[in-house]
Write a structure and sequence with these properties.
Length: 665
DNA sequence: TCCTATGCCTTTCCC
DNA sequence: AGGCATAGGA
């Protein structure tokens, strides 16, 4: 048995070999959280627990995948542990019990843009927004609905606290919410939030189902518990209601999902959920050198809420993090490229052991251009996924029509391609088809219209596709061929999109059937790298900080630490949100094992409005920053003084602060 | 009535 | 850059 408990420290071992019952593991960054969880699972299996009786709930698909891999290695190939995101677990449970909740097991999952599309339709049906009145956009509306669900609050409460500008529109939001719920039920679709809501409902109102699910899940483990919302906490507790075997692992200092309803109270209140809840704290950091931890501690020390954590490393030595004082984004891209190459050549660090972390996916745009020019291969995590690109969704819309001719959203998408066919006509057409006993596109009533030929062509295509229902590769090829001819009419930048269409065949091969291809595409979107392998195995990682949680690299460069970028401009005026940005910086810093670079471009051009900077309030508020980092400045850069006008008082204050920290400046 | 061109406004993070 | 309202044309 490959389980080597003596490699663990005492606290970890206590958690791994704990007896049944509730257990809270507080695990600071890099303290072996993943290792502890995976050992726990492996240990349970070794004790004779059936893998399928273990449920391991995580936040990202990647974390689930990685942990299950490790468990499998440790146990010599044990399979069948039920792991995954809350949403994926909920999907599987709901497919089994859908009938109890008024759904068919074949429900499909709306991804964000699908859901927005549906909300957008309802918005215009209800006549909101027009005539001089500025109503919330479909994205905002969905955000409000989602927030209410995820924080268990009413729409009114959410609007008043988060969107005061729409506080007067409560009745309209409620009307939209009602109709949105009706439509989803009618069409047999659910959105991400519904997955949690429905599972929670199943567990709270169907006692038999709750008992069955709980009994089948003898040991429930939850990773990143600080990022669970109320619904998820309730789901986890109810899953453990029969036996009380619930182990949750988390770190309140790494709570970075309040924006989507995470509630830190869950981890703080956890011990009250169960009698005799054990608590174990992991403090020994095995990941980073002490100078990196010193900076991490410094970031945390300035947090408004007191976190009494102090990360310690048994490893001595190591260089201090480097703070780069840069003129602008161009200088930033230059320096990062230089650092990547230097670490690669001088320190012998493969690119695969290096990462560039960003607050928002687009912050790396300039760097990506330089990397491409320099021939450094990279993979980008976070941001747009392959299956979320417009042209890929277009092709999938055609497939969805074959699978379900009543899919109104898919009709809307497809009909929108035709010149002369606007929203109104699309609505009429889609409604007519959805309501017909035999759903089928009939172009005849539109003979006099400009788009008649298009409708005929589409109808013919759909007939051809239906004939290939059981030959997915052929079906896909037919759909792609038809779509590709129209592509230049639909997307101006069609050339770069063509390549992706060819890659679709790969997905078809992998999925096998149309149902499998369409099922859960929303939950499991395909990454660019999966369909366009670069052929390199030494890949640099570019990732959002959110997506980087739980991962680590030898060298990490954090980009654009500049007010408005990181911290995000949305957070600047909101103390709570600024605290979340601070925790986000803590997460970013603690990803690094040995080398850490912080990029502080003094001037960053935003898409609109003035350039922002100089400075980063998150860094400036760290006591003794100058003791914790080495400051380096570059000559040159595209920025020249005078472009920006005179600094205001706040800016002057920052400049003064910078002088203190950086030296002359 | 319905479609499209134009101009204004917003813009994160993830399942 | 893309969504959305609004104006003006078919």
């Amino acid at each position: 048995m490959a389980l080597e408990l003596d490699l663990l420290n005492e606290a970890q071992r206590r958690a791994v070999t704990a007896p049944d019952g509730a257990h809270l593991v507080i695990a600071g960054a890099g303290t072996g959280k993943t290792s502890t969880l995976t050992h726990r699972v492996a240990w349970l299996i070794e004790q004779g627990v059936s893998p399928s009786a273990i449920v391991l709930l995580t936040f990202t698909r990647r974390a689930a995948h990685e942990m299950l891999e490790r468990v499998s290695r440790m146990t010599g190939g044990a399979r069948g542990v039920r792991g995954g995101t809350f949403h994926a677990f909920a999907t599987r449970a709901l497919r089994r019990h859908a009938d109890r909740l008024g759904y068919t097991p074949a429900f499909t999952i709306l991804d964000r843009s699908d859901a927005e599309g549906l909300v957008g339709m309802i918005r215009s049906e209800l006549g909101l927004g027009g005539k001089g009145r500025r109503f919330a956009t479909k994205g905002t509306i969905l955000g409000v609905l989602s927030r209410a669900v995820n924080t268990s609050r009413t729409l009114e409460e959410v609007l008043e606290s988060q969107y005061p500008q729409y506080a007067g529109d409560v009745a309209d939001f409620e009307a939209i919410a009602r109709r949105y719920a009706e439509r989803k039920q009618q069409q047999g679709v659910v959105d991400f939030d519904d997955l949690l809501v429905l599972l929670d409902r199943l567990l709270s109102t169907h006692d038999e189902a709750r008992r069955a699910l709980s009994e089948a899940s003898r040991h429930v483990l939850v990773d990143e518990y600080q990022d669970t919302n109320r619904l998820q906490a309730r789901i986890a507790a109810r899953l453990a209601s029969v036996h009380g075997n619930l182990m949750v692992v988390g770190d309140e200092a790494q709570s970075i999902y309040a924006f989507r309803g995470a509630d830190v109270e869950n981890i703080l209140q956890f011990p009250r959920l169960f009698d005799a809840c054990a608590i174990t704290t992991l403090e020994e950091n095995y990941r980073s050198t002490q100078p990196i931890l010193d900076l991490a501690n410094g970031v945390l020390a300035t947090a408004a809420q007191g976190y009494d954590k102090h990360l310690r490393s048994p490893r001595r030595g190591g260089a201090r993090p480097v703070l780069w004082d840069l003129a602008d984004e161009h200088a930033q891209a230059d320096v990062v490229l230089g650092e990547l190459l230097r670490l690669h050549e001088e320190e012998g660090l493969p690119f695969a052991e290096q990462a560039v972390l960003v607050r928002a996916a687009h912050h790396s745009a300039l760097l990506e251009v330089l990397l491409a020019e320099a021939g450094i291969p990279f993979r980008k995590v976070g941001g747009l996924r392959f299956t979320e690109a417009a042209h890929v969704k277009d092709v999938f819309a055609l497939l969805r029509l074959v699978a379900n001719p009543r899919d109104v959203l898919a009709w809307f998408r497809v009909l929108g391609w035709f010149e002369g066919l606007g929203a109104r006509t699309a609505q009429t057409l889609a409604d007519r088809i959805a309501d017909a006993p035999e759903p089928r596109l009939d172009p005849v009533p539109w003979q006099s219209k400009r788009f008649h030929a298009d409708l005929v062509s589409l109808a013919e295509l759909l007939v051809q596709l239906e004939a290939r229902l059981h030959d997915l590769p052929d079906l896909l090829e037919t759909a792609v061929a038809w779509y590709r001819e129209r592509l230049p009419l639909i997307h101006e930048d069609w050339k770069r999109r063509v390549r992706d269409l060819e890659a679709l065949g790969l997905l078809a091969e992998r999925a096998g059937t149309l149902e499998a291809l369409l099922a859960d595409l929303a939950l499991d979107p395909v990454e660019q790298a999966e369909v366009h392998p670069t052929g390199h195995d030494d890949l640099l990682t570019i990732s959002t900080v959110h997506s980087a949680k739980g991962l680590e690299w030898d060298a990490v460069q954090v980009l654009q630490l500049s007010d408005g970028s990181f911290p995000s401009g949305f957070a600047l005026d909101e103390p709570d949100e600024l605290e979340e940005e601070r925790r986000l910086l803590y997460v970013a810093v603690t990803r690094a094992r040995r080398h850490l670079g912080l990029m502080v471009p003094r001037f960053v051009r935003q898409r609109r409005g003035p350039v922002l900077g100089p400075g980063c309030v998150l860094l400036e508020s760290i006591d003794d920053l100058a003791q914790l980092v080495d400051v380096r400045r570059t000559a040159g850069g595209a920025y020249t003084l005078g472009v920006r006008g005179a600094p205001d008082a706040a800016e002057r204050g920052r400049l003064a602060r910078f002088r203190d920290v950086f030296g002359d400046g």
